[in-house]
Amino acid sequence: MSPSVWSNLIGPVRLVKGTPQLRWNFAVSLSFSTLSTAFNYFAMRRGTLIVGDQRRTFFHDLIMLPALFVAFVTMVVRAARRRFFTRGPAISLL
After folding, report:
1. For the CA atoms of the chain, what is the radius of gyration?
2. Per-residue pLDDT averaged across 54-64, rounded?
3. Is residue 94 part of a domain?
4. What is the tally of structural domains in the chain?
């Protein structure tokens, strides 16, 4: 389920429960969900955190996570720099 759909489903529960600063809570939750989903896709495209025939051991995946995190943050920073400081696509898929 996409982060925005999940956040919209949980929103009424937070409203009924009286969550303080509901808008801020919603924005932080949606941002975190979006970033974590993007990182998971990023890691899976690189052969980590997957199941099936192409999988590696969980221990190997844990060892790869720090390098993947650095690569992900670097990609996000470069995409933001391209988006805000140059003319062209923010993310190159090739």
Report:
1. 17
2. 90
3. no
4. 1
